[in-house]
Design goal:
Elements: E1 4-7, H1 11-17, E2 25-28, E3 41-44, H2 49-59, E4 64-67, H3 74-87, E5 91-94, E6 107-110, H4 113-120, E7 126-129, E8 147-151, E9 161-165, H5 172-181, E10 186-190, H6 199-207, E11 211-214, E12 224-226, H7 229-238
Parallel strand pairs: 1-2, 1-4, 2-3, 4-5, 5-12, 6-11, 7-8, 7-10, 8-9, 10-11
Helix pairs in contact: 2-3, 5-6
């Protein structure tokens, strides 16, 4: 039986999964909600690196691997490309185009946490939208700063940090309220390219708030890359063996 293994991690992956039949597998790392209304199989959890993923591909008769993980999940993407190569099957990838700065934007690209700390020194009220990573640094917050962190779930903060648990899509009026109420003077963001989280950039532009953008990692080459769900579905439709 011909089978697709879809590695999820972005909203678009779920849209693809909803088109798949019961012989195919939708794989999730386990962070966030697990859908229960799909026709395809759903697998939750890791594989143990490229070697474990290659073994899974062999054991389950996978014919095509589709990487639809987050643009910053570089290690997972590398494992996928390596496992597919070792298994002798093609690896495709859905990769969102990065956001591009527009007129009025003040974007400053950063490479890592150490560079981010230096760039944050002039600011008092940063808004972090990097996921959970800043939680590891709560004891490093300078006394003159108060951090607002937004993540998928609520986590404990401290006297100089509040964590907001919230999931996109986010709407511009709500983002305006957030920036105003918390007097945000700098935004820290990954360049995810997602339309669901783009309104925060619009508000930063409106308010003249600088944006510290975490540089995208370099991802491995694969047989085919796509930018949209429609492109992926068209390509899958042309594979008559799936």
């Amino acid at each position: 039986m011909k089978r697709l293994l879809l590695l999820g991690g972005v909203t678009e992956a779920l849209a693809i999964a909803r088109t798949l039949g019961p012989q195919h597998i939708y794989s999730l790392a386990g962070v966030g909600r697990v859908p229960t209304d799909l026709n395809c199989q759903v697998r939750v959890g890791g594989y143990g690196g490229a070697e474990g993923l290659a073994q899974f591909i062999t054991d389950h008769g996978i014919d095509l691997l589709l990487d639809a993980t987050h643009p910053y999940a570089a290690q997972i993407s590398q494992n996928a490309a390596t496992a597919a190569q070792h298994s002798g099957i093609p690896c495709w990838a859905l990769r969102r185009p990065a956001w591009q700065a527009q007129a009025g934007d003040d974007w400053r690209e950063i490479s890592d946490w150490a560079e981010l700390v230096k760039a944050l020194k002039p600011f008092k009220r940063p808004l972090f939208t990097l996921g959970r990573e800043p939680l590891q640094h709560l004891d490093e917050i300078p006394p003159e700063q108060f951090w607002t962190l937004r993540a998928l779930e609520v986590y404990p903060g401290n006297e100089r940090c509040e964590v907001i648990g919230s999931r996109g899509p986010f709407f511009i009026e709500d983002e305006r309220t957030l920036f105003e109420r918390r007097q945000i003077d700098v935004l820290i963001s990954k360049n995810s390219g997602s339309s669901a989280t783009e309104p925060k950039l619009e508000v930063a532009r409106e308010r003249g708030v600088p944006v510290l953008i975490l540089k995208r990692p370099v991802l491995p080459g694969v047989e085919r890359e796509f930018e949209t769900v429609a492109q992926v579905l068209a390509a899958l439709a042309n594979r008559r063996d799936l």
